[in-house]
Amino acid sequence: MSPDISTHVGPISLERPTMLASGILGISLDVFGRLYKEGAGALVTKSLSKEPWDGYPNPTIIGLKHGYLNAVGLSNPGAPYFAKMLSQNQTVPIIVSLVGSVPEDFTFMVKQFENVKILGYELNLSCPHVEKVGLEVGDDPELVHTIIKSVKKESKVPVLAKVGLGSSDYLETVRTACDSGIDGITAINTLRAMAIDIQTGRPILSHKIGGMSGSPIKPVAVRCVYEISSKFDIPIIGCGGVSSWEDAVEFLLAGSSAVQIGSAVGEKWTGVFSEINDGISKYMEKKNYKKISEMVGIAKKF
Ligand SMILES: Cc1cc2nc3c(=O)[nH]c(=O)nc-3n(C[C@H](O)[C@H](O)[C@H](O)COP(=O)(O)O)c2cc1C
């Protein structure tokens, strides 16, 4: 019998341990359907705000030797638009990513999805390049506490917090999230970075500073998952630089129960999820693991 690659992130059950990370392929239900068929256990939407946001002017994304540098500016059509779209056609496991500045932004958005079937919410407390949201919220413990408390009170589905590396200790954000009743942590978002055109001397991104993603950030993300899992009793989803089954296994051993894949989906497009799921399954067979949970956090024993 082949190993069971289904997994749980706290109250969230997934048929497969690989998910699409937020922001990589927007909110197209056609694309989500295709990736689900290809093996994604869940699809995380682009972060949605209370109202539509335009984002920044181009250039907003640069391909690096490995991975990307982006400051898209969270352009999205708004939570009410997506909730309506989903209410008309919902067939795949979707986690809705939400972004806002104050608790009322988040509770307004949660109300929009009241009668729509979704797996859960992921609160974006970590976008590194938009003012008054993302990391600026994640860096403010009082705000993190009131946002999570308000969303938990309003939501009928599990709520995850996505953390990143800002100007305060991210482990304090995790601590506050845990104390406020969060169901799980996604770690990590992109890392603040920039690139300059040496001919003109201009920063390349219109926003100048953006977030770096892809394989170069993997060791940082693995370290964060390991630290969170060592210090807190909270389900974790690892994210950052996963592009092979070996990367995914590393995150599971560090302590996450599932992984999200972003840049590698942009780079390879097809086949990433099935390839990684197959690799995890073969690895489990070889190591005699029957269930994903048997390998989660093994690295902490050493
Ligand atoms: C173009 C682009 C847009 C992104 N948009 C979002 C977003 O809207 N919300 C969010 O939480 N993360 C966003 N991210 C971050 C990813 O979800 C992920 O955390 C990060 O890219 C690290 O994973 P990766 O190395 O597999 O890409 C974005 C990343 C990229 C490259």
**DSSP, total strands:** 14
Q: If you compute it from the alpha carbons, what radius of gyration comes out, rounded to the nearest whole angstrom?
A: 18 Å
With strands numbered from the N-terminus, the spatial order across the biggest sheet is: 3-4-7-8-9-10-13-14
CATH topology name, in short, is: TIM Barrel
Number of H/I helices: 10
Relative helix content: 25-40%
**What's the CATH class label?**
Alpha Beta
The set of bound ligands, ions and cofactors reads:
flavin mononucleotide
Overall geometry comes to globular
Structural class: alpha/beta
CATH superfamily: Aldolase class I
Report strand %: 15-25%
Q: Please state the second-level CATH architecture.
A: Alpha-Beta Barrel
Provide the low-confidence segments as ranges: none
Largest sheet: 8 strands, parallel, barrel
Order of helices and strands: EEEHEEEHEHEHHEHEEEHEHEHH
The number of domains: 1
Keywords: Cytoplasm, Flavoprotein, FMN, Oxidoreductase, Pyrimidine biosynthesis
Main location: cytoplasm
Protein name: Dihydroorotate dehydrogenase
Family: Belongs to the dihydroorotate dehydrogenase family. Type 1 subfamily.
In words, what does this structure look like?
This protein has 302 residues and is an alpha/beta fold. The mean pLDDT is 96. An 8-stranded parallel barrel has the order 3-4-7-8-9-10-13-14, surrounded by 6 helices. The chain has a 4-stranded antiparallel sheet with strand order 5-6-12-11, with no helix packed on it. A two-stranded antiparallel sheet has the order 1-2. The protein contains 10 helices and 14 strands. The chain is 34% helix and 18% strand. Flavin mononucleotide binds at residues 21-24, 46-47, 61, 68, 70, 72, 74, 97, 124, 127, 162, 189-190, 213-214, 217, 239-242, 261-264. Its EC number is 1.3.-.-.
